[in-house]
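Session log. Operator J.P. requested a structure for one protein chain; no other inputs attached. Running the standard single-chain path with token output.
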Amino acid sequence: MTSNYRKWPMTLFLGILTAPLILMYFYLFVDTVTNSPPGSMIPNEWTLEHWRFLWQTLPGKPTIWVATWNTFLFASSTTLIVLFISSAAGYSLSRLNMPGRSFFLGGVMVLHAFPTVTLLIAIFLILQMVGLYNTLTGVILVKASLELPFGIWIMKGFYDTVPWEIEMAGIQDGASRFQVWIQLVLPQVKPGIFSLGIFSFLAGWSEFILPLVLAPNNDVQVLSVYLSSLIFDETNFDMGLFKSIGLFYVIPVIILFLFFQNKLMNIYSGGNQG
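Structure written below.
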């Protein structure tokens, strides 16, 4: 009873901080299904006109479903590449005594801290040279490359927490190093893989600058670029439509967070051994 009583001040404090955000999203939703008189914030009629993008193609733009599929393909492909390479590279850095290991670890951190925008011109020229400019494949490879330093460092931390005894037991039973990694070590770092996968997917889903610069065509347009194009349409700008598409864009992120928020906290439980 006393313990629950002591939690009330913190619960009340967090509730006060969270209330404006909840009210903001609630009003945003109400604003997308209503119309208000000019100069007023109080709606006077219900309408689905602002959601017409779900069944109509806006002039000069792809359908919302094409943009949604491109965004999902971009985010999921980036996630798979990051998970595959980070899982292997993180294990190598954690378990294998490779030449230049310390230098590589430092390089990984430097690359993670490097601002993406400073690399855009070089990336743009390279993609043009190899014929991947204005393609989803090119943007996926670039985004995955930029996310890899973070992924490798995180997975190395999780591998560091796995006891050596597990691997030694597998090797003594006649398993190869690859079999030990797949069958014994990877199951021990599932929380890290799961958390890194969610972070990578959200990073891909919310990415804006790379698709805008490297894949501007309508055929490969993602939702973030689709949404920004409405702002630059000065002749036909519709604030209600803009809010509805923004809400449509953020709904999957909110759902993902609500279902997997506990799993996301696991990413901070990895070790940090050298």
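Operator note: The longest strand covers residues 34-35.
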